[in-house]
Write a structure and sequence with these properties.
The structure is a homotetramer of 114-residue chains. Chain A has 114 residues and is mainly α. In chain A, 58% of the residues lie in helices and 7% in strands. Chain A has a two-stranded antiparallel sheet with strand order 1-2. Chain A is elongated. The two termini of chain A are 29 Å apart. The structure holds a DNA duplex (15 and 15 nucleotides).
Chain lengths: 114, 114, 114, 114
DNA sequence: GTGGTCTAGACCACG
DNA sequence: GTGGTCTAGACCACC
């Protein structure tokens, strides 16, 4: 991940980090589903505090760009996936049916990908 | 479902049924995720044999337009969903990670739909 | 604006105009914040004297239904806005704090409306 | 302000504080426009760290329940005010006209309150 | 005076 | 291992 921090930038550090990650996602350099570096590692790489990165990740999660899970890191959320699921939810499908669809599609897609 | 069968049509009946359903899906009259009538019911409605409909459904399933499950009928597949899942599979994500993403996004989407 | 004057109406003309505008506001045809036609234009449209319209506008302003300003015409007052401001005044907030609240909320509202 | 922290509560402290303030607002014990205690003071009162309270305030601000301003503290936002301003913005009024309305209404309201 | 942010270091919860 | 939170204390920016 190529992120840089500019101490002359009027934005706060965590904001620069959040904006930087947003830009990477927007440019496709961080693909949907890609894993982000652990908070501690990125903090070390950038030479900033762990909490600063955690704040950036939290902001991105709040905006729905990141999927963060305790114990297994953060990954870039999939807008396409969200769009598809939103369609199905709005169509009134119960969660169980949606999951069935997902499992079926996934099985078919992974078979094709062998 | 508005499907009609023309005995003068050179196409076989199951093909007419399959093509008719494709057209309904293409026109959006059968939305992604929508349930199709049970094989027996559609056969009765159209006055054709049960196996004819089953063959049509099988063809549509083979083409990926339908998701068919023993005991719970057929439903229109979601192209958007497939596209999203394909992206993630091609990105090299293991099934487990993809399912985590799906669950996370689904939770977020359903929360917003309250 | 659809206003009509009836010379057989026992009410005075300015009263008919004022009542007519009140009715337009009540029916929502003149929304809160909407601009009213200039005094001269409305007078010409209705074929009455300029002062008659001015009197009607003054009455509506006195009743708090219109906000009139030298040089920039009249507009329909916002009952909701007045209610909100009244609340804050009664809560003892000084004008400066209220204006700060207004500016903050306005900034937030206009951002969301982008 | 009556807030209490329960160390046995599974929610994080900042979440308890944020929820507590939300409840106070919902019950009307913190009126619209009311000032909240300074971050440092509330932190001292509750015996927690300054940052913990700051996090709670930030969350409430993000949700639009608080108006926070550098150097002059936090106050409860006015939902009524926001609703009124939203109406006017959606009606297409430019910021300048809206502010004129506000000033006019405010002048009228404060005169009545004398 | 006010809130905003950052750091260093700690402990917890999750998997 | 991962992120989440809290603390203590610092400095900055705004008014």
């Amino acid at each position: 991940m190529f992120l840089s921090i500019d101490t002359h930038d009027p934005r706060s550090i965590y904001q620069q980090v959040a904006d930087g990650i947003k830009a990477l996602i927007a440019r496709g350099e961080l693909a949907e589903g890609a894993a982000l570096p652990p908070v501690r590692q990125l903090a070390a790489d950038l030479g900033v505090n762990l909490n600063t990165i955690a704040t950036a990740y939290r902001e991105l999660q709040r905006e729905g760009l990141l999927t963060v899970k305790h114990g297994s890191g953060a990954m870039v959320a999939s807008r396409t996936l969200r769009k598809a699921l939103t369609e199905l939810v709005l169509a009134g499908l119960p969660k169980s049916k949606i999951l069935r669809l997902v499992m079926d599609e996934l099985r078919m897609v992974m078979k094709g990908a062998r």
